[in-house]
Write a structure and sequence with these properties.
Its main location: membrane. One of its GO terms (biological process) is phosphoenolpyruvate-dependent sugar phosphotransferase system. The structure is a single chain. Helix content is 81%, strand content 0%. The protein is mainly alpha-helical and 257 residues long. It has 2 domains: 196 residues, no CATH class; 59 residues, no CATH class.
């Protein structure tokens, strides 16, 4: 168990660095859960849990000073406990969401503590001493990583057996309720995403997807391919209109001259 907890902690480190740096989407639940599943010997279950959590947290993002729920910790711990308990998606979702909300406060605390490094870097910059700015930058990242990985490591090391015993004692009717709740959560994620990005002129594309699914009987992959084709032609037409508008403006300016 120690080696598995160590490898899962390594997954958390990579995901945290990605979230605070290059943003290659390694930190997304679909990827982190799959890596946890690989470590625990059940890649398929890891992908299944990760896909449900990915849909649930589609619209979760940090804007301005807002710190969103910690989806990295939630996905990693939820997937690990879901696989270790043998309950799969049901346990994964039941654990991931409260963990993400609880560790959200640790993110706030870590970023508040990072103000110290920012002030030190500002002070050195005002003096013209730039030699330590890189050190302060990486120190702040290390602090964020520590706030992330310590709870994850302790949870995996100490909580696996307790979680398995806990879920074994839960009555079947409650487990059925958790299953039903888990099936509804992806729709909340889609709703949050649509609320942010859906404009009046884009409703027709949502309707096209609905018609393809309900009346055309198309699979999700088929609808995605149709969406890619429609998006390509939409972008092509939009670019042509912009080019025509630019040419028209240029011609008018030449006539004025």
């Amino acid at each position: 168990m120690f080696m598995q907890a160590l490898l899962i902690t390594l997954v958390a480190i990579v995901a945290t660095i990605d979230y605070n740096g290059p943003l290659f989407m390694i930190h997304r639940p679909l990827v982190t859960s799959a890596m946890v599943g690989l470590v625990l010997g059940d890649l398929v279950q890891g992908i299944i849990i990760g896909s449900v959590l990915e849909l649930t947290w589609l619209g979760v993002t940090g804007i301005g000073g807002y710190t969103p729920p910690d989806t990295i910790s939630g996905a990693i711990v939820g997937t690990a406990f879901g696989i270790m308990s043998g309950q799969g998606v049901t346990a994964g979702i039941a654990i991931a969401i409260p963990i993400a909300v609880a560790t959200q406060q640790l993110d706030v605390l870590a970023k508040t503590a990072d103000i110290y490094f920012a002030k030190k870097a500002d002070a050195d910059a005002r003096k013209g001493d730039y030699s330590k700015i890189g050190f302060y930058h990486y120190s702040s990242l290390i602090l964020i990583i520590l706030f992330k990985i310590v709870p994850i490591f302790l949870a995996i090391m100490l909580g696996g057996e307790y979680v398995a015993d806990l879920f074994a004692k839960i009555p079947p009717i409650i487990m059925q309720g958790l299953n039903s709740a888990g099936a509804l959560l992806p729709s909340i994620g889609f709703g949050m995403l649509l609320n942010m990005m859906l404009k009046k002129k884009l409703w027709v594309f949502l309707l096209v997807g609905f018609v393809c699914s309900v009346y055309g009987g198309m699979s999700t992959i088929g609808i995605s391919l149709v969406g890619m084709i429609v998006a390509y032609f939409y972008d092509l037409i939009l670019n042509q209109q912009l080019q025509s508008a630019n040419i028209s403006v240029t011609n008018e300016e030449e006539l004025d001259l």
